[in-house]
Amino acid sequence: MTPTTASTPWHLWLVAILALLWNAAGAFDYLMTQTRHQDYMAQFTQEQLAFFYALPSWVVACWALAVWGGVLGALLLLLRSRRAVGVLLVSWLAMMVTTVHNYGISDGMAVMGDPFSLGFTAVIFIVALLLYLYARAMAARGGLR
To answer: What are the contacts of 40-49 at 24+ separation with CB within 8 A?
Structure first.
């Protein structure tokens, strides 16, 4: 008996490539912020800079998990690996922890609570959730190995 393998749907490649580009932008933001790149950080107010630079280590660690988990999850989607599901879930959960801290526990709402920042944070949050749900669905359909 020959084992059957599911063919890769065209949209998996599209989603994986777009996810990698999207998450690469997040990784760029993380690197520029963590290295305090002068030109990049010039776009923020002094109050916002003070907020970023005062983040507790555990929040920075969750942010790193969210960002690099998103990049790894997208790469795993490109490789059609089932591991993308767990990695993207961890990325989303880490993003949730970071968001709760930044907007709920600390004074991030006052510092970064303008409508654009809140809207963009919501988009990031939704995209990460959708990527996890997509990977889970592709795994369930046999599109990931």
So the answer is: 47/111, 48/111, 48/112
